[in-house]
Every structure is written in C-alpha cells, then in structure tokens.
From TrEMBL:
It comes from Neobacillus cucumis. The keyword Nucleotide-binding applies. Residues 4-235 form the ABC transporter domain. Keywords: ATP-binding, Nucleotide-binding, Transport. This is Spermidine/putrescine ABC transporter ATP-binding protein. SMART domains: AAA. The keyword GTP-binding does not apply. It holds the Pfam family ABC_tran. One of its GO terms (molecular function) is ATP binding.
Length: 258
C-alpha cells in the first residue's frame, strides 16, 4: 500500500463564459519518507495539484488517499510551506511557531518544548521574542518551517518555498530542510520551477506538460546522488547530464514562439 495515492485526477475551472481543464488524468503514488518534485512549464497545474492533494481544493474528478484514507479526513496530517512565510507581523516568533499547535488544539508543555527545541536546531535560538520584521528572509522561512513541522504532519507540501531568497541563502536552506525532513522521516512534495533544485533535493521528479496538465515523464534520481545533501548533489558527476536531459524535455514542452 502506497503512503500517498493520487488516482485519475481531473480538474476544470469554470467561469460564466468558459471551462478550462487545468489537470487531466493525473495518477501517481508517493512512498513514505520519499521526497518528490513537481516540475513543469508555468500554467501546467502543479500548484492546483498540490492544493488538491492537501484537500484545499476539491477535484472535478478523482481521489487522493493518504494512508488509504481520503485526504479530506487528514487535514492535520498535512503541512504546507509557501513562497512567502506568512508569519503574522504583530506576533513574536514564538507565538507564530506555536500557532498551528494552538489552532489544532495540540498545544501543551511537551509540544511547546518540542517546537522551541526545533527552532533552536534551525539556528534560531534567541529570537523567540523577536517580531518577524527583525529577521532576515531566510530566518523567517526557517521559522515558517518550524511552525509547519511543529504539528508533526505526515506529509509536507512545499510550494516554491526558496524562490524569493537570494541564491546563497536558498542553497543553505535547501540543505537544512532536506536534513531536517530526513531526521524526522517526513514525506515531502516540492513544487518548483528550478531544475537544479528538483534534482538536488528529490528522489523522483514528475515532469508535467501543460494545458491541460499531465504527467509527461518521471525521472528517478541515481541512488548515490540521493544520499548526498542538496549542495553536494549539485557537484555530483551525474548532476549536469540529468540537468541537460530535463532541460531539453522542458524546452520541448514550451509552446513555440511566433
């Protein structure tokens, strides 16, 4: 039994004047502890599929099962990390990271202690009473990750969480997130436009074609590359050839320019 099973997903956006098929016939599985990426041209429905998997959006057709149960019954078991950190500017970092626990009625001395300990592991010890504006973008994203992990979700959804950061911070945060998810045995799905990021962080990459979004190809990363940190993976001997292969496939999916 697969940890996550996405079956025959189709999604159509309706307006008064038209119906646009965003996703067509999407079926995939993700195993427990696996890190997969969704990669593809803009408008191929990656974020729509992420929203369906996290049950924020009900598909027109198809089912999504997490541990053989509909995702609509698993809301507290799915964590979401976005491009923006969405920390409340008027709340301290401590108040922000405990918010998910509070809303899901899981806040107690043990869960609070675990969240603060995780904050410390993320290199943010001593910022508990700071406001978000006192932190850099990378620090805020780390705090947002702590808030997401504090509720102990079984599945983590990452929607371009590093794209707004400078390159050096992005590389450091990729390593930190990858290591943290491995330590906690988390399963994760990353939506990204960055081929290098997908290769460096993933076990498998799902390449989508657009209009309507379909799974075009699946790339399995070499076993020895999977064992490396994202930073080290970028220096692996196979990295460049995998990058070129995916690049060419992506180029073939882009609409021809007139």
């Amino acid at each position: 039994m697969s940890f996550l099973k996405v079956q025959d997903i189709q999604h159509i956006y309706f307006t008064k004047a038209s119906a646009t098929t965003a996703l067509s016939n999407i079926s995939l599985t993700v195993e427990e502890g696996e890190f997969v990426s969704f990669l593809g041209p803009s408008g191929c429905g990656k974020t729509t599929l992420l929203s369906i998997i996290s049950s924020l959006l009900k598909p027109t057709k198809g089912t999504v099962l997490l541990e053989n149960k509909p995702v609509s019954t698993s809301k507290n078991e799915i964590g979401y990390m976005l491009q923006q950190d969405y920390l409340f500017p008027w709340k301290t970092i401590e108040e922000n990271i405990l918010l998910g626990l509070k809303l899901s009625k899981q806040l107690n001395e043990n869960t609070k202690s675990a969240a603060l300990n995780l904050l410390s592991q993320m290199g943010l010890k001593g910022v508990e009473k700071h406001l978000p504006k006192q932190l850099s973008g990378g620090m805020r994203q780390r705090a947002a990750l702590v808030r997401t992990l504090a509720t102990e979700p079984k599945l983590l959804m990452l929607d371009e969480p590093f794209s707004a950061l400078d390159y050096q911070t992005k590389l450091k945060l990729e390593d930190l997130v990858s290591r943290t998810l491995e330590v906690y045995g988390k399963t994760a799905i990353l939506v990204t436009h960055d081929i290098g990021e997908a290769i460096a962080m993933s076990d498998r990459i799902f390449l989508f074609s657009s209009r309507p979004g379909k799974i075009y190809k699946i790339f399995e990363m070499p076993e020895d590359l999977k064992q490396l940190s994202p930073f080290e993976a970028r220096n692996h001997e196979d990295y460049q050839s995998i990058f070129q292969t995916i690049w060419k496939e992506l180029e073939s999916l882009e609409p021809a320019k007139e």
